[in-house]
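Lab meeting notes turned into a lecture example. A postdoc, R.K., suggested we walk through two folding results consecutively so the class can see how the record format repeats. The first protein's sequence and structure tokens come next.
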Amino acid sequence: MSDNKPLVLSAPHPRSIDLIFDDDHERRLFDRYEVLETEPDRIGDLDDATLGRVRYILGQPAIPEDLLDRLSALRCVFNVESNLLDNMPYDRLFARGIHVVTTGAVFAQPVAELGLAMALNLARGIVSADRAFREGREIWGGESNAAARTLSESDIGIIGFGDLGRALRRVLSGFRARIRVYDPWLPPSVLRDHDVAPASLDEVLELSETIFVVAAVTSENAELLDAAALARIPDGAGLVLLSRAGIVDFDALVSEVASGRIGAASDVFPEEPLPLSHPVRQVEGFIRSAHRAGALDSAFKKMGEMVLEDMALLDRDLPPQRCKRAERETVGRMRSRPVSIN
């Protein structure tokens, strides 16, 4: 191996270099760096001399204490899976000045756009009306809108206000809605600066006609929306689940929708792929999407651009700016499961 270029260890499973870099940025990667591709579970098999030269890791492989000791030149772990996993000693990484960053922000806009489409579907019954039309049982005119409502000037709630919540706020801006946000990790002034109203969870649930659930799953909020919480949602409201299914008691959500009391849409599920026997497949009033909201090639390719720009900064002893940095106070609380299918 050449010692002339910084060494990048590439183990981005289930993603690949070809998926996250377009041709131009992939050429730049290989021009500027020596890239060693390996499987995440084979990193420990590399010799000490090689591991001692690794400056950057692409992916989020498990890094036990003894492996971290051998990665003496490591500067940054670029997590292109985007869910921070509890598989490395973050306290030691931070103590050594090693960054852990994610490229998950690339998914915010496309996920927000699909979330808007889901909310409009729930409000106007677009999917069910199309199905009825194709089956010759359509209802014409105003009679078909007995349960319809508009998003414009309505009450909307958002649970979680990270990159995705903020992207949702942007795509909702034209609807002149009253938007309340629950996010216990943010001070009220930050929410007000984004022109949303800080609110308690109860206020978001009880006062919203449409609720977007976009919070990451943490050690503190697993099944935050349990049966009792879901029961506080007003009759006829719609819930759109876009982050991870673990934040909701999914069986209770399916029951609420099956009863006809509320509608729901989800891009994420407790198991993925979902078993064919799962009851949610048969429930009317539930819009289903196979974890595809952010899985656009254009989004994947932005990852490579972000990674290269931040590597260039780190090469100059500057902090990364494009990717989102893991925070020492919260990284250990993350409980989202990694994806298995891109």
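The second example is placed directly after the first for contrast:
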Amino acid sequence: MNLFVQRLNELIENSGKQQKEICKALGIYKQKFSRWKLGETKPNYDELIMLAKYFNVTTDYLLGLED
């Protein structure tokens, strides 16, 4: 599992929210989010920023460039 997938899953778990709640807040389809969680696809630049803002972390953290 790559570091992005690991960190995304940890953030989701720590948020205490269900995937459908997060998807609704972000305005994305559940299928897209599921593919990110499984490492099948990666978010684009704008989506990465959106995730970082939602989870209140940096994009560097999501990408594994900082702890």
